[in-house]
Amino acid sequence: MADSQEIVSPQQSDNEVEEVPAPPSTQKSKADEEAAKKARFAKKYKVSEKTNEEILEAQQALWRSFVYDHFEAPVIVIVDGEVKYKFICKTSPSTKPLTRARWDDSTSNLVRHVNACKKTSKPPPGQKAIDAFAQGSTYNPAKFRIKLSIWIARRHRPYAIVQDPEFLEILQMLNSKVEVPHPTTISRDIREIFEITRRAVGKMLQAHPGRLHLCLDGWTSPNVISFLGITVHLVRGAKAESFILDFVKLTKSHTGVYLGQQLTACLKAYGIEDKILGITADNASNNMTMVAELETSLSGINSRQTRVRCFAHILNLVVKAIISPFMKKKKAAAATADNDDTGEADDSDEDHEATSARKRHRQPPAGRSHKKAKGYASADEDSDLVDVNGELLTEDEALRALEEEGLEIDEDGIDFTHETTEGEEEEEEELDADADAYDAEEIDALVAEIETEYALSVAEQRFARYTVTKLVELAKRVFHSPTIRADLKSCCIKDKCPDLQMVRAIATRWNSLAQAIGRALKLCAPLTRLLTMPKYNTKGKKGLARFQLGEKEWDLLRELHALLIMFLRATDRVSRSNLPLLHEVIPVIDIITGRLLEAMEKPSLPAQVRYGAALGYRLLNKYYSVTDESVMYRCAIMLHPKHKLDYFRQQKWKADWITTAVDLLRTQWEDHYKPKPDENAPTASSQSQTHDDPFACLDTYTLEGDGDVLDNWLKTPTNPSCVDPLAHWENQRKVAPMWEPLARMALDFLSVPAASTNVERAFSRGGLTVSKRRHSLNDESTRAATVISSWAAVPGLIPEAAIVATFADKAKRNKKKVSDPDVEVIE
């Protein structure tokens, strides 16, 4: 087998651990060869222009040998002025690390270590070998149950899957003695795995040397159970990691005080109440009250000064403000509701939106449990795009209209907006009425504020709304008709355009309107050809020609798209990693603010676009000014090697603003990170008196000098090439112990999540767990399965060995209670 083969090195190293001196006659040639290698290395990797971390990253991208997989990521060390890499064995980390000059690409020493390591390592203990179908693997009943439970939880499988005949046949084929647990046992196992892992996760987080961050949001499951979703964020090995900490069941009105109490209880259960720094949540007022509650219920440094407002929600709100002049508010069915004296509750969207503003201060969004949005409304109540009440046609009404026009309907049409996972589309396309009402309040307030300065005429409003309405309705019809899609494809070929389809604008995907307009602009000529086809404009029927856009309408869409595309690119930029961090979004906000200001002051732009830009600018400025209440943003920027104080100067901050920012940073440093002076430590003068060597002080010299390490670091030049500040500070922490406290502080502040996107992904997992066919799951099962699905994605987080031991011990105890060996024991 492959595991027993010796690894043969492709070349021998010139930098062995125990070097044998070469004969004198070859010393010169060897030195020349090394010098040549160093020169080639310096040229290839541009050593003079890059940092050590960037060079290592470039080298790793070219390493193809599997031997590197046997070692941890190389650690950069500097020995006698030369940069080297230290390789630590994953299998035997206690063995002496191997060191190699970075210009040396030989793997012979590494290969030799791997071969020796394989010979000495012991194979894992096993009980019974599975037959030829799984030669080399082992079967362990307890481990099998654990693997089965984790698979069902992580992949959102129903418990009853273990009783599928075909599934059982597969297992029996592999091992005739396999013991498949009952679905109820699987349910109990998942909850027990959760409890055991929860204790292990708590210990791991307690032992973590840095601070932890949280993301929070409320969620209501499809079977109407309310939870507070909590994700935890930390830095391990220079990488920002996150996973679900817990799903806390909520049983009372979601006031800020109640949420704070529940969060406090959760953190104390994990033993991490003193380790929390940043808390990221949306802009709901009860979240502010919750953070205030934490100040009194928890110790540590978390407070309103360390709260972070969700960047994704802010962008969402700004885009809503910009496109609001192009959308008509959906009229609530107020007349019907107000005149209804029956006293019975009305669950309609209209009624809910009318009252949600009053509820907003009492509870957060109740999840995606409302009816589907009715779409974008039109300003033209006489248009045949709307119903008799002036409302835009719904998806179902649009389908019926297609049927009336004699067009073939594809109800399972492809969504060209983006790929959706199982269960995602239904959740994303349902409105959160509470959040929408709260956002609408903010936008209405801004409209009233700028109405006199940027007022639109009635004609301008109708033109903007009708233009977007036609585009949105046309996209719906193309989406739902395979006949129209096929003809659009033919039109693309005739006009020599890319074979593309239209994108629908979906209310809950706030960037989808920009995508829809952008796609329509690319299809301008084919759409014009399509909408004039005789087959779609027969006499006596409403034809597609009514969706035709004029030149002025296309011009308006181009200018609106030019403004909205900036938000698409901003989203893409901060989404390059799984989670945007504070130091990544602040420059993005500054750029967006500048572009919106330019647009609102540019007279050549359509009035509707300038009006939307003004709304977006005012709203973004409002939330940007709120960042002054938090120390997190400014500290993150100042601790980034690329920015420091230079970023504030480039943004033309006033001198007293910069001074305030530095004072805030210094307060955090001195109160929570700066080492306390050791009274027993010898002073510099006493050291000089005890040493005979007057130069001994050079051996203990540090960059800290006689001043404060933070002040000295801020005075050093910025590092414009630093793209990964976490890697920079992690390396500084390892190679220079005197940097440890400041590096720890930097890692803490630079790892703060800027958006609560991870907790929203957690809700997606919860929605998949509680599917339409699993509505009987209780809160404990929902919690355990959802959280385990996240924990299982983090290598080593679930302590499988400890769980196997627990399960095996229980099995032994239960077997002692059963006298008949043929009786099956189900725990």
Automatic annotation (TrEMBL):
Compositionally biased tracts (Basic residues): 357-374
Example of a GO MF term: protein dimerization activity
Domain HAT C-terminal dimerisation residue range list: 712-791
Bias-annotated ranges (Polar residues): 1-14
Keywords: Metal-binding, Nucleus, Zinc, Zinc-finger
Acidic residues bias locations: 338-352, 422-432
Pfam families (UniProt xref): Dimer_Tnp_hAT
Range of residues in the leader sequence: none
Full protein name: HAT C-terminal dimerisation domain-containing protein
Region (Disordered): 1-35, 336-381, 409-432, 673-692
Taxonomic placement: Eukaryota, Fungi, Dikarya, Basidiomycota, Agaricomycotina
GO CC field: nucleus
Subcellular localization(s) per the UniProt record: Nucleus
Entry annotated with the keyword Cell inner membrane: no
InterPro entries, per database record: HATC_C_dom (IPR008906), RNaseH-like_sf (IPR012337), ZnF_BED_domain_contain (IPR052035)
Domain of life: Eukaryota
Organism: Phanerochaete sordida
